[in-house]
Amino acid sequence: MRRLLAAMAASAVLLCGCSPAPKKYSAVYTDVFDTATEFAAYCDSREEFDLYAEALHDELLRLHKIFDIYDEYDGLFNAASLNKTKSGGCPSELIELTKSAVDWYDLSGGKLNIALGSVLSLWHDSRESGIPPAMEDLKPLAEHCDIDDISVEGDIISIKDPQLSLDFGALAKGYAAEKAAELLESVGCADFVLSVGGNVVARGEKPGGSWEIGISSPDGGILTTVKVSDEAVVTSGDYQRYFEYEGVRYHHIIDPQTLMPANLWRSVTVICKSSADADALSTALFCLDEQSGRILAENFGAEALWVSSKGEVIRTEGFEDYEK
Amino acid sequence: MKNKLLKNDFALIAAIFVIALAAAVFGRAIGRAGDTVEVRVKGEVYAILPLDKPAELDIGGLCVLKTENGEAWIESAVCKNQICVKHRSVSRVGEAIVCLPSGVTVKITGEGGADIVI
């Protein structure tokens, strides 16, 4: 109903407006997916933009609650509820992303594993305390990360291992950005750029051409810029979320096979059509060697840019086409 | 005399060419210089400061922002992880510093340049 009202209101604004030159408006949210979300669009009026921004914020909050593993909400069986009870009827988005995540486990050679929840939870506590976890504490938890213990039947997800918990952190933001972009389009917002914690979805164009997305250099500054119109862009980097202990940096992308932060790359950027795929790919590529990463990216028609731990920059051939 | 002038002119043209080429190469790599920095707290615009003069801004007791010579950075913050303080200064349009625990975002704005920097 809310969507319908927003669509009607947006259409009304569009019909009544006497179309002056569209102006750029932007909004920032810091209360969804434990990250900063940026939304920018060219609109005829502040009122029109605010309608889109509110619809977007509502949708992101709704999705945030579904994939939240820390808090439960009244009247909603979410990821936290599932981790607690190990079985139950889930919202369609939770079903869809879980099914997709099971496929991604195989596609990434086990580098993307939503069953890694208990290991990631220990790393999460470490980021809070500032002290890295001991391998002897991580190893017993890794015994309870078997993707085959998750089953989906109809709208019910079941977890066989009582010590296994799910974590959608590597996939949820990209998926949510995709869903939110679909909602924006459905209420009449055709030209916009949205970034949910670095998961960028661009639609249409701004006056004068494509949207311009800067890719940060791991040590600061801008490494390069890409021009996109209907693509998703995402970067996984060791500089985004981390803590330092005794001069060593511990970042947030944990390799399921070593249980430690992956250290092949400083950052990996992926451009492709789907934001959900882009998010999964960037995390997988961050943990994979160049050759395996290239094959995986190619299978999804994705382009990629790697910054190695030595600072060397590697690109797929098609990536250059997006650079200015 | 005439030849000498030509020689000097040639040197000058060569020098200008080299500088222009260097500017083109390096300018491309680092994006467009910003004019202002937009400070938000929990999404609400808190302040917009010009980048061309030195300033210090206490952002609601959460962070202290400094600007000078076209750059902005977080000088200090009350948050635990201090990621925002360790972040290198930002100066190019679209570049941002985020302090998630405090909900503070600092973004460089200006004419042209990148819409979002990730």
Helix/strand/pairing category of chain A: alpha+beta
* Nearest-integer average pLDDT of chain B: 86
CATH topology of the largest domain in chain B, what is it called? mini-chromosome maintenance (MCM) complex, domain 2
* Main beta sheet strand tally, sense and closure of chain B: 4 strands, antiparallel
Count of discrete alpha- or pi-helical segments spanning 4 or more residues of chain B: 2
Order of helices and strands of chain A: HEEHHEHHHEEHEEEEEEEEHHEE
Instruction: Report the β-strand fraction of chain A as a percent range.
Output: 25-35%
What does this structure look like?
The complex is a heterodimer of chains A (324) and B (118). Chain A is of the alpha+beta class. Chain A has two domains: 2-47 and 188-322, Roll (T-fold), CATH 3.10.520.10; 79-159, Orthogonal Bundle (T-fold), CATH 1.10.3980.10. Helix content of chain A is 37%, strand content 26%. Chain A has helices at 2-16, 46-67, 79-85, 92-107, 117-129, 135-142, 172-186, 275-287, 290-299; strands at 23-32, 35-43, 87-89, 150-153, 156-159, 192-196, 199-203, 211-216, 222-228, 232-237, 242-245, 248-251, 265-272, 303-308, 313-315. In chain A, a hairpin with a 5-residue loop joins strand 8 (211-216) and strand 9. The termini of chain A are far apart. By secondary structure, chain B is α+β, with helices and mostly antiparallel strands. Chain B folds into two domains: 1-30; 36-109, mini-chromosome maintenance (MCM) complex, domain 2. Chain B contains two helices and eight strands; from the N terminus they run H-E-E-E-E-E-H-E-E-E. Chain B has helices spanning 2-30, 83-86, and strands at 36-41, 44-50, 55-59, 63-68, 71-77, 96-99, 104-109, 116-117. The longest helix of chain B is centred in the first third of the chain and has 29 residues, at 2-30. Chain B is elongated and about 65 Å long. The mean pLDDT of chain B is 86. Classes of the chains: A alpha+beta (324), B alpha+beta (118). Strand 8 of chain A pairs parallel with strand 8 of chain B.
